[in-house]
Amino acid sequence: MPVTSIDTDPETLTITVVADFAAPVERLWAAYADPRQLERFWGPPGYPATFLRHDLRVGGGAHYAMTSPQGEKHYGVWTFTAVEPGVSMTLRDDFADEHGVASTELPGSEMTLTFSSTPSGSRVTTVSTVDSLESLEQLVGMGMLEGTRLGMNQLDTVLADLREYALGKGTQVEILDDVHVKITRAFEAPLELIWRAHTEPELMTRWLLGPDGWEMTVCEFEPAAGAPYRYAWAPVGDTEGQAFGFEGTTLVVDPLRRLVSTEAMTGADFPANTNDLNFAEQDGVTLLTLYIEYPSLEQRDTILATGMTEGMETSYARLETELVGA
What we know:
Number of helices: 10
Distance between the termini: 38 Å
CATH architecture of the largest domain: 2-Layer Sandwich
């Protein structure tokens, strides 16, 4: 993992985060200087940032919103006080409202990010200084340390060449903790096509079929927050198996970037999980990243044991054949 250390010092009222990457320092700086790249790691999984403003210069600033899987927005604002391109940036970091007005109730900090070369790539050292021990304890209590770790650990993917990182490797599954799973799949296709393949029923019914011998009998979906959806499948001909389906509610729609929804098996008595699907494109390669939050460890293991990811890969391979290669 990129983050090698996170330390709090109650005497100096600082939080220091050190992260190392196998990329040149110029590439690491560029990820922080470009708001579109920042959005992919500034915020932990499930709370990606959207930068409404980003002006990297002394006297400039940034305003961003982190959106939860339930669609709740949490805002922050930066004011840059020193910028040495490729070397360092210093800024005032505050919680804010939707208009970019800094909060007077929640603690802020002075943050300095220093970029340096290492024998294996590059390092960013972030030092945040607060004004009191109470503020330091409040930030730690709000989960800042773990949120920072989870967010920055996504930066490896941002810095990577997607062709080398994910293309041709099929559906990859990573268990993050007892209730969270990360699934990735890359396509040599434009982002717009992959987005349409996940949001237009006439396209979804061509590839979202699972194993051969099944058909999608119901595909009711509207890409709108708050809209219900329903899918169903049935075996065809001599294929063995029982018809089944899923249903839920779409929670977040950020076009060409993110879809969040609840998902439960139709007729089942166990609670729904939350699917957070993210889209990113680099040099003609589109990467899907799906974060799944399960209600419990038992439900996570039960669903993974069904061969879910193998079925996903069969469908994704069909997507490549039916849509990308058509």
